[in-house]
Amino acid sequence: MKIAEKKINAVSKLFYIKGRLDAHSVDLIEEAMLKELENIEIQNLALDIGEVSYLGSSGIKLFLYLNQKLKSRNGTLVLVKITSSNKRLLDAMGIGEFFEYANSEDEVMELFSNA
Protein backbone atom coordinates (compact mmCIF):
# COMPACT_ATOMS: atom_id res chain seq x y z
CA MET A 1 0.00 0.00 0.00
CA LYS A 2 1.35 3.38 -1.01
CA ILE A 3 -0.07 6.81 -0.28
CA ALA A 4 0.94 10.29 -1.38
CA GLU A 5 -0.78 13.63 -1.01
CA LYS A 6 -1.13 16.96 -2.76
CA LYS A 7 -2.54 20.19 -1.39
CA ILE A 8 -5.12 21.66 -3.75
CA ASN A 9 -6.01 24.79 -1.79
CA ALA A 10 -6.30 25.93 1.84
CA VAL A 11 -9.26 23.62 2.57
CA SER A 12 -8.74 20.74 0.10
CA LYS A 13 -6.30 17.86 -0.37
CA LEU A 14 -5.88 15.05 -2.89
CA PHE A 15 -4.53 11.66 -1.83
CA TYR A 16 -3.14 9.09 -4.26
CA ILE A 17 -3.69 5.53 -3.06
CA LYS A 18 -2.09 2.49 -4.67
CA GLY A 19 -2.44 -1.18 -3.77
CA ARG A 20 -4.97 -3.17 -1.78
CA LEU A 21 -7.39 -1.36 0.50
CA ASP A 22 -8.27 -4.13 2.94
CA ALA A 23 -8.25 -4.80 6.68
CA HIS A 24 -4.46 -5.19 6.69
CA SER A 25 -3.63 -1.97 4.85
CA VAL A 26 -6.45 0.42 5.70
CA ASP A 27 -4.71 1.55 8.91
CA LEU A 28 -2.08 3.48 6.95
CA ILE A 29 -4.74 5.33 4.98
CA GLU A 30 -6.95 5.86 8.01
CA GLU A 31 -4.07 7.37 9.98
CA ALA A 32 -3.33 9.89 7.21
CA MET A 33 -7.01 10.77 6.77
CA LEU A 34 -7.69 11.21 10.49
CA LYS A 35 -4.64 13.44 10.74
CA GLU A 36 -6.16 15.63 8.02
CA LEU A 37 -9.50 15.71 9.82
CA GLU A 38 -7.75 17.05 12.92
CA ASN A 39 -7.08 20.17 10.85
CA ILE A 40 -10.35 22.02 11.26
CA GLU A 41 -9.72 23.96 8.04
CA ILE A 42 -9.83 20.85 5.83
CA GLN A 43 -13.28 20.55 4.28
CA ASN A 44 -12.63 18.54 1.12
CA LEU A 45 -10.71 15.37 0.41
CA ALA A 46 -10.22 13.62 -2.90
CA LEU A 47 -8.98 10.04 -2.99
CA ASP A 48 -7.41 8.90 -6.25
CA ILE A 49 -8.19 5.19 -6.06
CA GLY A 50 -7.58 4.34 -9.71
CA GLU A 51 -4.69 2.09 -8.70
CA VAL A 52 -6.49 0.35 -5.85
CA SER A 53 -6.46 -3.29 -6.89
CA TYR A 54 -8.82 -4.51 -4.17
CA LEU A 55 -11.45 -2.61 -2.19
CA GLY A 56 -12.52 -4.47 0.93
CA SER A 57 -15.14 -3.71 3.54
CA SER A 58 -12.60 -1.88 5.73
CA GLY A 59 -11.87 0.53 2.89
CA ILE A 60 -15.56 1.08 2.24
CA LYS A 61 -16.15 1.72 5.94
CA LEU A 62 -13.37 4.33 5.87
CA PHE A 63 -14.95 6.04 2.83
CA LEU A 64 -18.31 6.22 4.63
CA TYR A 65 -16.70 7.62 7.78
CA LEU A 66 -14.75 10.27 5.88
CA ASN A 67 -17.82 11.21 3.87
CA GLN A 68 -19.87 11.70 7.03
CA LYS A 69 -17.17 13.78 8.74
CA LEU A 70 -16.64 16.03 5.73
CA LYS A 71 -20.38 16.54 5.17
CA SER A 72 -20.66 17.69 8.80
CA ARG A 73 -18.20 20.46 7.80
CA ASN A 74 -20.15 21.24 4.61
CA GLY A 75 -17.35 19.56 2.71
CA THR A 76 -17.00 16.82 0.15
CA LEU A 77 -15.29 13.48 -0.32
CA VAL A 78 -14.51 12.77 -3.97
CA LEU A 79 -13.48 9.34 -5.25
CA VAL A 80 -11.20 9.82 -8.24
CA LYS A 81 -10.62 7.36 -11.09
CA ILE A 82 -12.66 4.62 -9.41
CA THR A 83 -12.56 1.39 -11.40
CA SER A 84 -15.79 0.09 -12.85
CA SER A 85 -15.65 -3.01 -10.62
CA ASN A 86 -15.23 -0.92 -7.46
CA LYS A 87 -18.04 1.42 -8.57
CA ARG A 88 -20.31 -1.58 -9.18
CA LEU A 89 -19.46 -2.85 -5.70
CA LEU A 90 -20.50 0.45 -4.08
CA ASP A 91 -23.66 0.55 -6.19
CA ALA A 92 -24.55 -3.06 -5.32
CA MET A 93 -24.23 -2.16 -1.64
CA GLY A 94 -26.62 0.74 -2.18
CA ILE A 95 -24.04 3.36 -1.20
CA GLY A 96 -22.68 4.47 -4.57
CA GLU A 97 -24.88 7.54 -4.54
CA PHE A 98 -23.36 8.76 -1.26
CA PHE A 99 -20.14 9.86 -2.96
CA GLU A 100 -18.96 12.40 -5.50
CA TYR A 101 -16.83 11.09 -8.37
CA ALA A 102 -14.21 12.53 -10.69
CA ASN A 103 -12.39 11.00 -13.64
CA SER A 104 -9.24 13.10 -13.38
CA GLU A 105 -7.21 15.42 -11.21
CA ASP A 106 -8.40 18.31 -13.41
CA GLU A 107 -12.01 17.51 -12.47
CA VAL A 108 -11.04 17.55 -8.79
CA MET A 109 -9.39 20.94 -9.22
CA GLU A 110 -12.54 22.24 -10.85
CA LEU A 111 -14.80 20.80 -8.13
CA PHE A 112 -12.71 22.35 -5.37
CA SER A 113 -11.90 25.62 -7.14
CA ASN A 114 -14.61 27.53 -5.29
CA ALA A 115 -13.70 26.12 -1.89
Describe the structure.
Helix 2 links the parallel strand 3 (44-55) and strand 4. This protein is α/β, with parallel strands linked by helices and 115 residues long. It contains 4 helices and 5 strands, in the order E-E-H-E-H-E-H-E-H.
Describe the structure using short key phrases:
globular; Transcription Regulator spoIIAA; 33% strand; five-stranded mixed sheet; alpha/beta; 4 helices; 5 strands; 115 residues
Would you spell out the secondary-structure blueprint of this structure?
Blueprint (H helix, E strand, L loop, with lengths): L1 E8 L2 E10 L4 H13 L5 E12 L1 H15 L4 E5 L3 H9 L7 E3 L2 H8 L3
Helix pairs in contact: 1-2
Radius of gyration: 13 Å
Strand content: 25-35%
CATH architecture: 2-Layer Sandwich
| Main sheet: strand order | 1-2-3-4-5
The number of helical segments is 4
Uncertain ranges? none
Top-tier CATH class: Alpha Beta
Which structural class matches the secondary elements? alpha/beta
Q: H/E series, N to C?
A: EEHEHEHEH
The residue-averaged pLDDT reads 93
The CATH topology, please?
Transcription Regulator spoIIAA
The major beta sheet can be summarized as: 5 strands, mixed
Helical residue percent band: 25-40%
Number of strands: 5
User: Cα distance, first to last residue?
Assistant: 30 Å
Quaternary structure of the protein: single chain
Shape: globular
Q: What is the number of independent domains?
A: 1
